[in-house]
Amino acid sequence: MQWQSSGAIYHETGVGSRGSSRGCRRQERAAGRIQQARTDEMKNNHIEFQKANEFRNAALADGWIAKPTYAPHEPIESAASLKHSEGYKMMIITRDNIPEYPNAKNRYEIDISIWGSDGLHIDTPPEYNMQMIRNGTKKCDNCKQIVDKTFRYSFAGRCCEQCLPKMREQYEKSGWCD
Ligand SMILES: [Zn+2]
């Protein structure tokens, strides 16, 4: 499950650019396919939007404390910052860009980011599950192995000892700072 999935971009260039009738039919068929793709994408995004809302609600029911991330400009329903008594943190974006859509780039913006009490990133489980979140503090971002101890790379990256030199090399380019 990819939560950063709201980037539905459609390219309509290159479809029947010549004016022949054959080109026109091709254009109509292509337009139909684009329309279908849009409908499918919207359906998928709506399902993910609902899942992200359910994720937040399950966390709240499990004792996480939430506040609106961008108060007073945006309600907690679309941008929430959550804290857990064990020190875990989450940021949940569940924006439905009605009524701006279709002028807004995407109808939905969905993101769930989780960090441990050590400030390092944790993979978002497909559904809310506190044990999976706890286990995430032992999971390498890169090779996905569960290890006893994880290490920081870049700002909040979490990896195992073996992956550490490679991750630092890859993400800590000159000029980055902690
Ligand atoms: Zn690793």
Question: What can you see in these coordinates?
Answer:
The structure is a single chain. It is globular, with a radius of gyration of 21 Å. It starts with 20 loop residues before the first helix and ends in a 7-residue tail after the last helix. With 178 residues, it is α+β, with helices and mostly antiparallel strands. Residues 1-19 have low confidence and may be disordered. It folds into two domains: 21-136, no CATH class; 139-178, no CATH class. The chain has helices spanning 21-61, 130-135, 164-171, and strands at residues 65-68, 79-83, 89-96, 108-115, 121-122, 151-153, 157-159. The chain contains three helices and seven strands. The strands form two sheets. It has a five-stranded antiparallel β-sheet with strand order 1-2-3-4-5, with helices on one face. The chain has a two-stranded antiparallel ribbon with strand order 6-7. Residues 140, 142-143, 145, 159-160, 162-163 line the site of zinc ion (ZN).
